[in-house]
Fold this sequence. Notes:
40% of the residues lie in helices and 18% in strands. The chain is of the alpha+beta class. The chain has a three-stranded antiparallel beta sheet with strand order 2-1-3, with helices on both faces. The N and C termini lie far apart (57 Å).
Amino acid sequence: MDRKKELKQQYKEIKIEAGIFQIKNIKNDKIFIGSTRNLKTLNGTKFALENGAYSNKILQKDWNEYGKDAFEMEILEILKEKDDPYYNEKEELEKLEEKWLNHFQPYGERGYHQEKAR
């Protein structure tokens, strides 16, 4: 029983990091840029893709067509926490994701994103 308590405590102490990730199709070089408030959830992203349940239907279609071995997942940047009472992690993560979307321009033939209407 003590081992179970010890494992629970270790789990609680694991630092949760937010960040930006990329899923790249190595067959056609298309990329998907995503963000998460917990980078440990990337296994859940893979699980959703493997089960045909990912929210980006274009990426899901290619995953189904090419298979999981045609894709690489990579963390692009970890969000730096700030010791500021007005710090808004969600807003900062959105800004960081926008930075990477602007950098890679993963739209149309280059990626799995739809350009936003301006």
